[in-house]
Amino acid sequence: MTQLRPAREADYDDFARLFAELGAPDPPPTRDKWRDEMAPASVMAVRDERVVGCCYAQVFDDTGYVRILVTDASARRTGVGRTLMANAATSFRAAGCTKWCLNVRPDNVPAVTLYRSLDMEVTHTRAALAIDWAAVERLPASDRDTRVVLDASFDAQTEARFSLHRGQLGVARTLPGRVIVTLLAATSDEVVAVAVFDRSFPCAAEFRVAAPELARPLLQAIRPHARPGDLQAKMVLFDREGAEAALVAAGGVVRMRTLHLVGPLG
Ligand SMILES: CC(C)(COP(=O)(O)OP(=O)(O)OC[C@H]1O[C@@H](n2cnc3c(N)ncnc32)[C@H](O)[C@@H]1OP(=O)(O)O)[C@@H](O)C(=O)NCCC(=O)NCCS
């Protein structure tokens, strides 16, 4: 029988073991990140006193975001994944969410089948890229004058402009090591780019630009917040904005593609 319980700091080793099953191009989050940020928002599935699954989720206003779902290889197809998703849905509803979402690789048949069975549908594709900081100067220059905003004064406009989830930037601002970099057109104050940059990962988990040539000034605005030893900028692009070709032409490498799925919570 599978039991669910809140995650604890001491679950880190089990979490790291399960994280490897995701096939992500990054190493597991650090013990500190698990303790401070992820464990308080995670649920562990336990069977016969052994951890067999984990679900890490966030709530953005009316949207529940399943960030990580993974079950132990030895326990697959025995209902653990569905149980964790049902629990997430219950928690999201209790928090007032009306929809939920997540990201999944297109070729991950077990996961895509599970999510589609829960009425989730693809809304867009995403590409995770990396580019050397030294290559940023090779990106096309923008002829638009922009100014950088780091505080929350344009968050609502930014979320609406770039189809981010309502409340997403506000939650990101509460998390350790995050910098929200927004670019405004200097003359009109129109929001033209945003990055949600996690210094410790390090990656801009959201990187959205109104035009490909804005990738360069956005990366230049992130750079002062990067750790000195990190040689690469990593980012997750939203497909419709067309910056991927410019980044790849400048030497960027696509590390992974994912689908973004959204479903009603009813
Ligand atoms: C995706 C994953 C979480 C599913 O967990 P699970 O514990 O095996 O899931 P369940 O046993 O509850 O199965 C739930 C449903 O998923 C689907 N599913 C699971 N495995 C499947 C497979 N091999 N082929 C097709 N569908 C599958 C089915 O719809 C299944 O329902 P059913 O058994 O009633 O037909 C698990 O395979 C996993 O951890 N994979 C590696 C990590 C990963 O890819 N995580 C998701 C990242 S977005």
Topology:
Elements (H helix, E strand, L loop, with lengths): L2 E4 L5 H8 L11 H8 L3 E6 L2 E11 L2 E9 L8 H15 L4 E6 L4 H9 L3 E12 L13 E4 L5 H7 L6 H7 L3 E8 L5 E8 L4 E7 L5 H8 L9 E7 L4 H7 L3 E12 L2
Parallel strand pairs: 4-5, 10-11
Antiparallel strand pairs: 1-2, 2-3, 3-4, 5-12, 6-11, 6-12, 7-8, 8-9, 9-10
The chain binds coenzyme A.
| CATH classification class of the largest domain | Alpha Beta
How many β strands by DSSP? 12
The percent of residues in helical segments reads 25-40%
Rg (CA only)? 19 Å
Overall number of structural domains:
2
Number of helices: 8
What is the terminal separation in angstroms? 28 Å
Going by helix content, strand content and strand pairing, the class is alpha+beta
Strand % is 35-45%
Just name the CATH architecture of the largest domain.
3-Layer(aba) Sandwich
CATH superfamily membership of the largest domain: Gcn5-related N-acetyltransferase (GNAT)
In the CATH hierarchy, the third-tier topology of the largest domain is known as Aminopeptidase
Main sheet specs: 12 strands, mixed
Element-by-element helix/strand order: EHHEEEHEHEEHHEEEHEHE
Task: Identify low-pLDDT runs.
Answer: none
Mean pLDDT: 96
Bound compounds: coenzyme A
